[in-house]
Structures are given as C-alpha cells and as structure tokens.
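Notes from the 1:1 (GR / supervisor)

We went over the backlog. Supervisor wanted to see one worked example end to end before approving the batch request, so GR pasted a single chain during the call. The sequence is below; no edits were made to it. Supervisor asked that the structure be written out right there so they could see what the output format looks like.
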Amino acid sequence: MPKSQERCQEIREETRSKILHDSMLYFAKNGFAGTKISDLAKQIGIGQGTVYIYFKSKEELFGKIFALANSSKDIKDLKMLVHLPIPAKKKIQNLSASIMTKLRQDEDYAAKIALNTQMMFEKKDFASAETTYQSELYQLTERIIKQGQKEGSVVEGLPMKLADYYWGVVYLYALKKLFTTQYEMISDEDLARVLLKDK
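Structure output shown during the call:
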C-alpha cells in the first residue's frame, strides 16, 4: 500500500531532523574545515545525495546547524539571570549548575558549546580578539562578573578575560563529553570557583 502524503511529509521531516542532529555532532567533533559531506553522509548512514536533497551545500547545512546551536533560549535564560535582584555569587552558582547539568545530560548541548567556540576561530567575522568578545554570551557573563567584583565575591581581573576563561573551561568539558568515554566531569562548584573568591 502506498504511503500517504502526510506520511511522506513526516518521513522528509524526520530525515531532515536526523541530518541536522547528526551533522551538529559531526561538525562539533571535526570543525567546518574538517568536514566533508561524503564522510558526514557515511557517518549518518545515508547517501551523499540525500544530504543535498535537503541542503544545497555544506555552507547552507552548517548555517542551519549554527542557527540551532545559537539557541536564543540559552541567551534568554542568561539575560534573565543577569537581571535577577540576587548577588552575583548566586548568579554564578546558578549558571554553573545549569551548564554542568546540561553537559552531563545532553550531548547536543556539548556540541552547541563546541560549535559556538569553533565559529569564533573559523569564521572570518570572528577572527580577532575584539570580535570574539562581541559574543552576547561573553557580554552577559561579563556583566555578572562586574557585579560580583563590586560586591567582592568575584576574583580580580579584566571581566571580559575572566568570562573568556570561564567559557573556555566549559568548552574543554564539552570536548571531553564529545570525544571521550571515560573522564571525570568537574562539579558545579568547581566551575563556579573559576570566578568566585574563596570565602
């Protein structure tokens, strides 16, 4: 019995979603420059031509993946945290707990972190330190750090460099999640201590 038009549409949407999901993990592990569509298709378990049915080029596929990785929900959650009327120490502890929970439970989150960081190095738009620090994620983290320095709970140093260091640690553990099977994940408190003074 032939498939209904609705079922055919469902299959197309499932295939497109599978390509996006599996490609996100593949790009996160191999980078844009290190990814060939032929290798990617083989890894997904589909024909190379199938990828091109859904996406015209590697650039288009990567653009869609990058849009997914740049989840507005994560930025929105961080903006809400920045504006909460609580001490910066508590904000950093909450942020660290949220990040580490997602890293422990969600390989996709680890891939998003890895992709966002790689984009800062691979895209011409992100080629310099000045443009790296234009990331909204860094800027919001910097605001929490400045608040914490005023309150005396955050270590001294340039707030943006501290934000870079903090997210660098997150990136390291995202890579461990993606590339290794046996590793020890740091605790929420360990991540928070990257920024917080010992008290």
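Supervisor's comment: The radius of gyration is 19 Å.
Batch request approved.
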